[in-house]
Amino acid sequence: MTHGLALVWGFPPAPRRGPKPAHTVAEIVAAAMALADGEGVAGLSLPRIARRLDLTPTALYRYVSCKDELVLLLLDAGVGPPPELPDTWREGASAWVRSLIARYGAHPWLVDLPIRGAPVTPNLLAWLESLLRVLGGTGLPPGDQLSCAMLLDGYARSIAALARDLAASEASPVQSPEVVGFLYPLLAERGYPLLAGMLVSGAYADSPTGPDVEFGLARVLDGIARLVDGTG
Description:
Oligomer: single chain
CATH topology of the largest domain: Tetracycline Repressor, domain 2
Structural class: mainly alpha
Radius of gyration: 22 Å
Number of domains: 2
CATH superfamily of the largest domain: Tetracycline Repressor, domain 2
GO molecular function: DNA-binding transcription factor activity; transcription cis-regulatory region binding
Domain HTH tetR-type: 22-82
Protein name: TetR family transcriptional regulator
Distance between the termini: 40 Å
Mean pLDDT: 91
Shape: flat
DNA-binding region: 45-64
Number of helices: 11
Low-confidence stretches: none
Keywords: DNA-binding, Transcription, Transcription regulation
CATH architecture of the largest domain: Orthogonal Bundle
Order of helices and strands: HHHHHHHHHHH
């Protein structure tokens, strides 16, 4: 992990005997990202990345020593740098969450990468730093600011994971005519009147819509606001 952490912070690989490397670590990561974008994390392997670069798997180990190092590099590159945020804490936190959801949407495999602990890579720490900068306006103690950051990050991640899973599903959408036609009579007859009404109105659906996401985000921020006001 120490070697991978050094790589992600921009320190070059330790020199080895033999020919000069034909590629850079950035090129290795770009090839891995293209593979992950096309096939997800399940398709990610060092031999397949090596083939994309016309390398042998053994040659790839000149750049990264194991898959865990590659995942660390890939995660930081996939998340990328954070956006500029409004100065006020609520607007800034809202923009942060929306931007993170969008970043996950651009690279859905990001939510499949394992979380090994607190962020330690440049871009992930930059995202956290930017959020803490706006949360500093709440006046909350540092520990509470970090807890709020974890809460907001978890909300963004859960929304992105749900959207990713639904996009990959081959099941018929619940609002498809065949599902509504089958399910509505059963709900009405077997004691689910509230859900029956929501189904026919279109409120009961698969994917979280923009209003759904904003509603949930607003409730999370309302909870933080109560903590700031001393009523939470």
